[in-house]
Amino acid sequence: MPFNIAIDGPAGAGKSTIAKKVAEQLKYIYVDTGAMYRAMALYMLNKGIDPSDSETVAKECDGADISIKYIDGLQCVFLNGENVNDKIRTNEVSDAASKTSTVKEVRRKLVHLQQELAKSTDVVMDGRDIGTAVLPAADLKIYMTASSRVRARRRYDELTAKGVSCRLVDIEKEIIERDERDMNREESPLKQAEDAILLDTSDMTIEEVASAILALKSEREV
Ligand code: DC
After folding, report:
1. CATH number, domain with residue 102
2. What is the pLDDT of residues 92-122, one digit of tens each?
3. Which atom of ligand 1 is nearest to 98's Cα?
4. 97 lines ligand 1 (CB under 6 A)
5. Residue 24: its pLDDT value, please?
6. Is 75 in the pocket of ligand 1 (CB under 6 A)?
7. pLDDT tens digits for 177-186?
8. Which domain holds residue 158?
9. How far is the centre of ligand 1, averaged over its atoms, from the C-alpha of 190 (Å)?
10. Which residues is 71 bridged to in the sheet?
11. With CB atoms counted within 10 Å of each terminal CB, which end of the chain scores lower, N or C?
């Protein structure tokens, strides 16, 4: 039976950095489900569809063929045959993904894909609903969070390091808005699964969080 680790939490909590690290150490596959929702949002934007127009998004989502391939150990998301990894990390796509991911038909399609991936392989999967909806029987569930100020600061540092000029207050505002939408939507809202372990990473280093998860994983195996 494959060992499945589910990591959920709000944007900027450090999920992908940590999940990637833990997967590398364990030689598991890392599955970034947010990238799939981003690819779907990109599909809608490319077609000129308003991401808030749920009815049209629901009708059109079947035209998006989304798949995952691993190239040199890196997860690559393909949208209708094109590797879109470099196109899904913009603010526009972040905002659109948070809207299109509220649509039931979108979720049904992507959840199915995620469940298929975890069926036969050891995975570390991160997202918003992994422990609650995608892998409710996961062997280890982590709910990772951090204060909105700390999360905004991490994003700010990332952007300014890339030479992008931005304001911390604006980023924090966007993060709070995104949390609101992710936590209050009808379909699989972001929430801590009852059997998930809460990790507040506000005052922890990446190494500390990764070690904590690896220790929990070893405990589960005994
Ligand atoms: O983790 P991320 O920022 O790349 O996710 C982009 C958006 O996709 C985010 O607003 C929430 C949504 N998402 C989701 O609804 N369910 C998931 N399992 C992963 C992401």
Report:
1. 3.40.50.300
2. 998 999 999 999 999 999 999 999 999 989 9
3. 10
4. yes
5. 95
6. no
7. 989 988 998 9
8. 4-215
9. 9
10. 74
11. C
